[in-house]
Amino acid sequence: MVQIAPSILSANFANLWAHVAQVEAAGAEMLHIDVMDGHFVPNITIGPLVVQALRDKSRMTFDVHLMITNPDQFIGEFVKAGADIISVHAEACTHLHRTLQTIRNHGIKAAVALNPATPLTVIEYVLPYLDMVLLMTVNPGFGGQRFIPEMVEKIERLNTWRRERKLNFTIQVDGGINQETAPLVVKAGADILVAGSYIFGAADISTAIRSLRERCG
Ligand SMILES: O=C(CO)[C@@H](O)[C@H](O)COP(=O)(O)O
Ligand SMILES: [Co+2]
Which residues bind substrate (predicted)? Predict the structure, then answer.
């Protein structure tokens, strides 16, 4: 069954826990936490302090998407704050294999994120060290962007690699996921759907989450 990971980027930061509590009550499996440094991406969001504050209240799996240069410097801080999964961008890691080992050595799950323009071959030799691959379906930096349709083929290809090589990482997609795009990416092989504006922008959060699940069968 598809898992839903609402992205807090589109939540109401003036009343963050109240908004996040609604996705937890609606049965979302994960909370997707977008960390941006104004350097790797042209936007700045939150750091470990906010993750820790939410951790004290929530039981959801915390899925931390690091859109920062030099992620190695902050892995320990985010683990201490309560991350269960950390995604680092391949484009931001000079020594990706080592970075993934660092994450796993902290006892949590390791994932790599790929920008839309980055080929899958960049992660070919680290696939056995991955618990999850995050395929960006928009350019990282902002919520509410349009899904890039060419990414469907990329998801299919990664799913084929996973099957042929008998690997068991999960495939997460992030960006522009809504009622129309969700069935396309799930059919292509996605297991986890990140959705920010579609869920947190909805009048009724639990209806939005349910509609995503129903559209994916
Ligand atoms: O990582 C990012 C953006 O960089 C995402 O997690 C967005 O926050 C998804 O937002 P929507 O496209 O679903 O509105
Ligand atoms: Co994200």
Answer: 7, 65, 141-144, 174-176, 196-197
Output the CA 148–ligand 2 centroid distance in Å: 15
pLDDT beyond 90 at 217: no
Q: Is residue 174 annotated as part of the catalytic site, yes or no?
A: yes
ipTM, two decimals, is 0.99
Strand 85-89 with 61-67, pairing: parallel
Say if residues 72 and 91 touch (Cβ distance below 8 Å).
no
Q: Which residue has the tokens 């410097």?
A: 73
Provide the whole-model pTM. Answer: 0.98
DSSP type of residue 88: E
What are the extents of the domains in the chain?
3-215
Binding residue per annotation — 174?
yes
Calculate mean pLDDT across residues 200-216. Answer: 96
Residue 27 annotated as binding? no
**Per-residue pLDDT tens for 36-45?**
999 999 999 9
Taking only the tens place, the pLDDT of each residue in 46-70 is 999 999 999 999 999 999 999 999 9
Q: Is 141 annotated as a binding residue?
A: yes
Ligand nearest to the CA of 175: 1
Domain 3-215 sits in which CATH superfamily?
Answer: Aldolase class I (3.20.20.70)
CA of 162 relative to ligand 1 center, distance in Å = 25
Rounded CA-CA distance 30/176 in Å is: 18
Q: What is the CA radius of gyration of the chain?
A: 16
Interval between CA 33 and ligand 2 midpoint (Å): 7
